[in-house]
Amino acid sequence: LEKFYSKGYYFLFTTSIFESKYKASDGILRNTAFNGNYVVNLGEGKASHPQMELEDSKKELSYVVDLFPTSKNAPGYLKVIFPSKTKWLWRSVMPLIFLSLLLTGIILGCFYYVVTVVFKQKKLSEIKNDFVNNMTHEFKTPIATINLASDSILSDKVISEPSRIQRFIGIIKEENKRMLSQVEKVLQMALLDKQDFQLNLKSVDIHEIILKAVENIDLQVSQRNGSIIQELKAKKSILYADQTHLTNIIYNLLDNANKYSSESPNIRICTRDVQGGIEVSVQDNGIGMSKENQKMVFEKFYRVPTGNIHNVKGFGLGLSYVKAMAEAHKGSIKLESEPNKGSTFTLFLPN
Q1: For every one of its 351 residues, what pLDDT tens digit does the chain have, with 9 covering 90 and above?
Q2: Domains and CATH numbers, the chain
Q3: SS3 string of the chain?
Q4: How many angstroms separate the Cα of 303 from the Cα of each of 3, 78, 206, 246?
Q5: pTM to 2 decimal places
Q6: What's the rounded Cα separation, in Å, for the pair 311 and 207?
Q7: Which residues pair with 350 in a beta bridge?
Q8: 241 contacts 201 by C-beta, under 8 angstroms
Q9: Are 280 and 240 in contact (CB under 8 A)?
């Protein structure tokens, strides 16, 4: 080193420091786990030479020792500088930062998933409880009526009057039909979930089906001082469909319009030709529903909230059945509604 120093040589080179450790007699030059460039500089003067301040101002990692601390004739110093300190530090910490961010993201994702599942389970629990309450109420009323009619038939005053017996038997029969209808709805949805059903497809006239459904529900609407307006304008009314399920679809839409009208229901049912098929729209002047309820209205067991008063009968299966059957016929159902402004259901069926 003294020989090189006397000639004024400076050294600059690049290599890897993974392979060795460096030591000096009166100081230690070491750097382990570093893989990058470094500069060895032989300079004049002691280690406190002004050149040190310039180098330090660059914030470069460096090690400095006096070459000949006891010599007065050939003073000098040896400096090893690591210009890539910042890059090396970043390379060292980047894996840890990446793993920390990844772990944080996984934790946040798991937390979001757990919260979502908890709220979903809470919602499902509420729907289940509503279904059980509605089912209990729907079965309790006809059972109570049947029980009362049976007790009346066994009464001494009624046994001697055949006309009254026939009347009470008729009540029992109607209430049995009502319970059977509710059970059939639940069983139908179970079959739909399993895809265990077969459509009996044949040519049917949608206008005839609408007229029949209107006739069946007209009495209920009239009892509430309501009306049903028919605008059957479709010219191509013949469809290839299952008559039973198609009748149920139309009846459910009309029944839904009647049930969710708080006052005298004014229902309008229309048909029109569209490209590829026919559209059937059922419009009412009912309570309507919010955007949030519209997203759930076709889900099984879901019912638009109407308070604690049980003034709307059913299990919340009607519209889910309508959607399932419409899709089974390669059709669709959509809804337009605003709170307190009524709702319009539009059914599309291909012809």
Answers
A1: 445 444 444 343 333 333 333 444 333 444 444 444 555 565 555 555 444 444 444 555 666 776 666 666 555 667 766 666 667 677 778 888 999 999 999 999 999 999 999 998 888 787 777 777 777 777 777 788 888 888 888 887 777 788 888 888 888 888 887 788 778 777 777 777 676 677 888 999 999 999 988 888 887 888 888 899 999 999 999 999 988 889 889 988 998 888 888 778 899 999 999 999 999 999 998 888 888 888 888 887 777 765 433 455 666 777 888 898 899 899 999 999 888 888 999 999 998
A2: 2-83 (no CATH), 92-194 (1.10.287.130), 201-350 (3.30.565.10)
A3: CHHHHHCCCCCCCCCCCCCCCEEECCEEECCCCCCCCCEEEEEECCCCCCHHHHHHHCCCEEEEEECCCCCCCCCEEEEEEECCHHHHHHHHHHHHHHHHHHHHHHHHHHHHHHHHHHHHHHHHHHHHHHHHHHHHHHHHHHHHHHHHHHHHHCCHHHHCCHHHHHHHHHHHHHHHHHHHHHHHHHHHHHHHHHCCCCCCEEEEEHHHHHHHHHHHHHHHHHHCCCEEEEEECCCCCEEEEEHHHHHHHHHHHHHHHHHCCCCCCEEEEEEEEECCEEEEEEECCCCCCCHHHHHHCCCCCCCCCCCCCCCCCCCCCHHHHHHHHHHHCCCEEEEEECCCCCEEEEEEEEC
A4: 96, 85, 28, 22
A5: 0.56
A6: 31
A7: 277
A8: yes
A9: no
Position 283, amino acid: Q
What tokens does 282 get? 């059922």
